[in-house]
Amino acid sequence: MKRGDEARSMIQSAGLKVTAERVALLEALLASPAPASSKDLLEATRGLDRTTVYRSLETFVRAGLARKVNVGHRHAHFEAAVGEEHHHLICTSCGKIADVALCPDPEDVRRVLRSAKAFASIESHSLEFHGTCAACAARSK
């Protein structure tokens, strides 16, 4: 299936109106090898205006098509919500992001909830590791 067809199908399956702008934005998310900032996505979807990108990203997050990722910058990053759940390793020097196929055990999540007496449920979680990538570490030697 071509990426455009995949994006169109995902949007339709989420019960959203399929527009050329949404297809282009979801294609850009699907093509991105790492979580992308809205600025990255604006560049990847030349011709879409900023408001459309921001609104569509929030719509995608609410519909479960995208995840908002906190990589420790002053702005959000986004990734397509496809594949296995994963977390991220972020270089504090250059900002490089790598996926980490590690997720807390469901019992760990239940333990967190039990320890937080003021909360009734956990809908989602995010886990980011911050460190130095090999290239930055080699440069600093």
User: Cα-atom Rg, whole angstroms?
Assistant: 17 Å
Q: What is the end-to-end distance?
A: 46 Å
**How many separate domains?**
2
Q: Output the strand order for the largest sheet.
A: 1-3-2
Mean pLDDT score, rounded?
Answer: 88
Spell the H/E element sequence.
HHEHHEEEEHEH
- What composes the largest sheet? 3 strands, antiparallel
Tell me what the CATH architecture of the largest domain is: Orthogonal Bundle
| Proportion of strand residues | 15-25%
Tally of extended strands?
Answer: 6
Which residue ranges are poorly predicted, with pLDDT under 50 across at least 5 consecutive positions? Answer: none
SSE class: alpha+beta
CATH superfamily of the largest domain: Winged helix-like DNA-binding domain superfamily/Winged helix DNA-binding domain
Helical segment tally? 6
CATH topology of the largest domain: Arc Repressor Mutant, subunit A
Oligomer: single chain
> Helical proportion?
40-55%
How would the global form be characterised?
A: globular
Class of the largest domain, according to the CATH hierarchy? Mainly Alpha
Overview of the structural elements:
- With 141 residues, the protein is α+β, with helices and mostly antiparallel strands.
- It folds into two domains: 1-82, Winged helix-like DNA-binding domain superfamily/Winged helix DNA-binding domain (Arc Repressor Mutant, subunit A), CATH 1.10.10; 84-141, Dna Ligase, domain 1.
- Helices cover 43% and strands 16% of the residues.
- It has helices at residues 3-13, 20-31, 38-44, 50-63, 106-115, 134-139; strands at residues 36-37, 66-69, 77-80, 87-91, 97-100, 128-131.
- The strands form two sheets. The protein has a three-stranded antiparallel beta sheet. Strands 5-4-6 form a three-stranded mixed beta sheet, with no helix packed on it.
- β4 and β5 form a beta hairpin.
- α1 packs across α2 (20-31) and α2 (20-31) packs across α4 (50-63).
- The longest helix has 14 residues, at 50-63.
- It is globular and about 45 Å long.
